[in-house]
Amino acid sequence: MQAKDLKPGMWVEYQQGVAEVVDVDLEHNTAIIENMSDHRRININCGDLAEQPQLHTGCDSYY
């Protein structure tokens, strides 16, 4: 993904699982995400994130 495609509150998948986007840095194409399993926040390159439209806000499971 690209930083321009992300917004805070959006749910994404990355190598470690499901995360919520906390903040986006358009200049560096990075995002701060919060892992839903341990609530750890990390700064990650947006290219390492995948949008999952099957995830919806408030639920870290597929529907």
Automatic annotation (TrEMBL):
Superkingdom of this protein's organism: Bacteria
Protein name (database record): Malate dehydrogenase
Organism, scientific name: Photobacterium ganghwense
Lineage, highest ranks first: Bacteria, Pseudomonadati, Pseudomonadota, Gammaproteobacteria, Vibrionales
